[in-house]
Design goal:
Blueprint lengths: L1 H5 L1 H46 L12 H22 L11 H21 L26 H20 L4 E8 L18 E2 L4 E2 L3 E12 L1 H13 L4 E9 L28 H9 L35 E12 L2 H10 L22 H10 L5
Parallel strand pairs: 1-2
Antiparallel strand pairs: 1-4, 3-4, 4-6, 5-6
Helix pairs in contact: 4-5, 5-6
């Protein structure tokens, strides 16, 4: 201890120097850790910048600002949507219907369409429900199925009225997308035998597109009238495909018992000598078993008459399969609201300088395996 008392000043100085070295080491370690995090973030931003520079289209340079051009194009798209809404006015679809109200609307619409078809002399199948035969006897409907079925019902009503105004000969059938699990399409079914088909309604960021198939029989003027009405309609109905073939229709075929033509019955007469019969008829005596003699029916000559008009074109009714899409353009407010609620793109997680995985996060290999095994939603 005498040495310590003699060198107390040096011991104190050494202790202070040791404490200062510890403080400097801690400060250096903290700054080194902060510098590592900054370097990792800088590397991440550099990679993101390189990725953006390699994108097509390029975000832009000092001379060309593609981001501003994209904003300008977005404004032009909004103006186009406003103009499209003026050109294509949607139908007045009722909203907030319950099962009872939809049932009343369905029965009223089907009865009205059947009466219009009868007044226009358009032939239909017996008790035809215009693709709603499976829903007609029901009294309760799922709440989430009522809005799409309401839109389909009014779309079919509007297009069917166009066919009736065009005076088509027969409406063989209508097919529409299925709404519930019970609405299963029948593959290979004849027109009028199935109400559903495999095509589905499509909903994107701008519109709701619902496809329909109408099968009817008509002549060329009636088909031209149908296409003209669809073209001049204020609502957005687009004819996507048109198939014309000479297939016969069961609705236009006449049954044999309703033809109205009966063959004359020729009575059988007993045998008699022609000379005796002629003498008896000369004196006004009608033999027993004989009736008045009628001349045989004249058969039309197969040889064409000279000087008459010859038939060059004898048009027959043909079958038309028409695919129509009903487009409902969304309002600009709905488009903007969907953009705001859209989830932003997740940024890559920050990686520490030592290369370890951040706490609470999975490694990239585990994430890729989970995304690979998951089943995408239809």
């Amino acid at each position: 201890m005498p040495w310590l008392k003699k060198n107390l000043w040096w011991v104190g100085s050494a202790a202070v120097a040791l404490v200062l070295l510890l403080i400097a080491g801690a400060y250096l370690y903290r700054n080194f850790r902060a510098e590592s995090l900054v370097s990792a973030e800088l590397n991440q931003q550099t990679e993101e910048l390189n990725q953006l520079n390699n994108l097509n289209p390029h975000p832009g340079t000092d001379k060309v600002n593609n981001i501003e051009a994209a904003k300008q194009q977005e404004k032009e798209l909004e103006a186009f949507l406003l103009e499209a809404q003026k050109r294509f006015v949607p139908l007045d679809y009722p909203t907030n219907l319950d099962s009872g109200q939809f049932k009343l609307l369905l029965d009223t619409t089907i009865d009205e369409l059947q009466r219009q078809a009868e007044r226009a002399s358009v032939k239909l199948h017996a008790n035809y429900a215009f693709s709603f035969s499976s829903q007609k006897p029901l009294l309760f409907f799922e709440p989430n199925t009522i809005p799409p079925m309401t839109r389909m019902l009014l779309d079919i009503k509007t297009i069917s009225e166009m066919l009736f105004r065009a005076k088509v000969l027969a409406l063989d059938g209508i097919r529409r997308p299925s709404v519930t699990a019970a609405d299963t399409p029948t593959p290979g079914a004849q027109p009028g035998m199935s109400d559903f088909w495999t095509k589905k309604a499509v909903t994107n960021d701008l519109a709701i597109i619902t496809p329909y198939e109408f099968t009817f029989h008509c002549f060329t003027p009636e088909l031209a009238s149908v296409l003209e009405q669809i073209y001049s309609s204020p609502h957005c109905f687009i004819v996507k495909n048109l198939v014309v073939d000479p297939a016969p229709s069961q609705l236009l075929e006449k049954p044999a018992d309703q033809s109205g033509e009966t063959m004359p019955v020729v009575p059988t007469m007993p045998y008699m000598n022609y000379r005796y019969l002629q003498q008896m008829l000369r004196y006004g005596i009608m033999p027993r078993g004989y009736g008045p003699i009628t001349p045989p029916p004249e058969t039309p000559s197969t040889t064409p008459s000279r000087g008459g008009l010859q038939v060059v074109l004898d048009e027959k009714p043909f079958r038309v399969i028409m695919w129509v899409e009903a487009v409902i353009v969304k309002s600009l407010e709905e488009v903007k609201a969907k953009k705001k609620t859209a989830a932003p793109r997740p940024r890559p997680a920050e990686t520490p300088a030592d290369g370890s995985t951040p706490s609470g996060e999975s490694t990239p290999a585990t994430t890729e395996g989970a995304s690979t095994e998951s089943t995408p939603a239809n």
